[in-house]
């Protein structure tokens, strides 16, 4: 078997971005990737508190009115990913890969499994044993979800992605039935180990594992991308930790 050539992966440390803004950025990057104007891209970021409703979301899985949620500073967004309702907020590392699976990675299940495996390996770096549960997506510590996965794939280009709980405010998950699963809990690296991981360090571990699984060569960038930058102008690449 002839080995595959490594792919170029541009990784952006995008900071804290409102969900709607990040969603629009993803859409723009997906179109640019389809047109061959950018490399495969991974956005790493956090969101202000938000509930996102996937295509399969049920209204009854949000346990409070939007007025109550707004009073707590939690917004609600309907999105095009698979799955039900989930929570994003500060202290949670969100990763949005914008990747062309064509021509040699045309396997959706394997792609989803690679996102889960990225979180499982990252958790293991900190002594947390996470695993899959048959029939459910995500990474689990016992019966508690530590990492969620939800993707959308259009013409083999991916968007949405994964969310790994680090120092996430877990009480906000009590606003919903997470992912529509009523008999399971949630957890975080902080809950499991007694302390959180510095976010930059956690980003580096996640990217290490993702790039290994995806056979990619990584270029790091600070800040969210603009399309002018991603289409070929110098985006200010930096080494990890700088």
Question: Brief description of this entry?
Answer:
The protein is α/β, with parallel strands linked by helices and 242 residues long. It contains 6 helices and 12 strands. It has one domain: BirA Bifunctional Protein, domain 2.
Helices, by number, come to: 6
Separation of termini?
A: 38 Å
- Level-1 CATH class name: Alpha Beta
Quantity of strands, as a count: 12
- Helix percentage: 25-40%
Explain what this protein looks like in three dimensions:
With 242 residues, the protein is of the alpha/beta class. It has a single domain (7-238), classed as Bira Bifunctional Protein, Domain 2 (BirA Bifunctional Protein, domain 2), CATH 3.30.930. Helix content is 27%, strand content 29%. The protein has six helices and twelve strands. Strands 1, 2, 6, 7, 8, 9, 10, 11 and 12 form a nine-stranded mixed β-sheet that branches. Strands 4-3-5 form a three-stranded mixed β-sheet. Strand 7 (139-141) and strand 8 form a beta hairpin. Helix 3 crosses helix 5 (199-214). The radius of gyration is 17 Å and the shape is globular. The termini are far apart. Mean pLDDT is 88; it is low at 233-242.
Helix/strand layout:
Blueprint: E1 7-16, H1 19-34, E2 40-46, E3 50-53, H2 66-71, E4 75-78, E5 85-88, E6 92-98, H3 108-125, E7 139-141, E8 144-154, E9 157-165, E10 185-186, H4 189-193, H5 199-214, E11 216-222, H6 227-230, E12 237-238
Helix pairs in contact: 3-5
